Amino acid sequence: MNHEKNHPQPPKPPTPNIFTIAPNIPPEALLVQACETLAALNVMTTDLAFELEGAHRQKLLASQQLIVLGELLIDRLLDTLSFPHAQALP
User: Fold this and answer.
1) Per the structure, how many domains does the chain have?
2) Does the residue 21 lie in any domain?
3) Is-contact 67 45, C-beta < 8 A?
4) How far apart are CA 33 and CA 75, in angstroms?
5) Which of 6, 73, 75, 83 makes the best surface tag, with the fewest CB within 10 Å?
C-alpha cells in the first residue's frame, strides 16, 4: 500500500523573495537600471576607498574598476542592441 497516495504531502511554500523584478519590464529598461545601479555602486566604493589606506583601499579600488567595467559593458549593449518596443518607464 502506498501511503503517499492516500495522504499526499502538502506543497512546500515558495521561498520568499524580498526583491523581485516585474516580468513585464522591457529589456532596455532592465539594462538601464543595471547601469544606474552600477554607477551608484561606483560612487559609493570610490568614496569609501578614499577613507581607507593601504591594502584595503587598493582592494576597494580594484572592485571599483570591475564595477566600471560592468557599466561599460552595459553601455555598449545599450548602444549596439536594437529595442523595437522601447518604452520609457512611468
Assistant:
1) 1
2) no
3) yes
4) 11
5) 6
In a domain, 11, yes or no: no
d(CA 41, CA 38): 5
Is residue 24 predicted with pLDDT exceeding 80? Answer: yes
In a domain, residue 62? The reply is: yes
Asked if residue 85 has pLDDT above 80, the reply is no
Residue 37 lies in a domain: no
pLDDT of res. 49: 94
Cα separation, 62 vs 56, in Å, equals 10
pLDDT of residue 6: 72
Supply angle C-alpha 10, 12, 14, rounded to 5.
145
